[in-house]
Design goal:
The chain has about 140 residues and is mainly alpha-helical. About 65% of the residues lie in helices and about 5% in strands.
């Protein structure tokens, strides 16, 4: 459910930024209030996502997805130019977010996949080593199979 919350947070953040653009420097009170409401909802829903998703991953996805969606909205709705440099930069943002997600502890390869790739099955229980200084438990935890 955390990923659903994160997706909703992204959509409300995008809606808030579009409202900000349409408010013409907050000179249109209705759109300014709408912008504030969208951002409050986005932050509230983001806090629900952060219960299960690490902040580094959630924020990277939230901001990266928002930037990418808004670049596309800007291109089509506001006739903003798309240069090769801008497109390449957006691609780097997407690749960076994907890299953070892949490197996160949640993106583990299952034991079955690992043993099928290496061609053998290990009889030793896999172990996860944590070097985080604020780890709640011992630095080595045995995973259950």
């Amino acid at each position: 459910m955390a990923w659903v919350w994160l997706s909703i947070a992204v959509l409300f953040e995008v809606a808030g930024t579009i409202s900000m653009k349409l408010s013409e420097g907050l000179s249109k009170p209705g759109l300014a209030v709408l912008m504030g409401a969208f951002y409050l909802i986005s932050f509230g829903v983001m806090s629900l996502a952060l219960k299960e998703i690490p902040v580094s991953i959630a924020y990277a996805i939230w901001s990266g997805a928002g930037i990418t969606i808004l670049a596309v909205v800007g291109l089509f709705a506001f006739q903003e130019p798309m240069t090769w440099l801008k497109a390449g930069s957006l691609l780097l943002i997407i690749l960076g977010v994907a890299g953070l997600r892949i490197s996160s502890p949640e993106a583990k390869v299952s034991n079955y996949s690992t043993s099928s790739i290496t061609g053998y099955s290990s009889s030793v229980a896999p172990m996860e080593v944590s070097i985080h200084p604020f780890a709640e438990s011992a630095s080595i935890k045995e995973e259950s199979r």
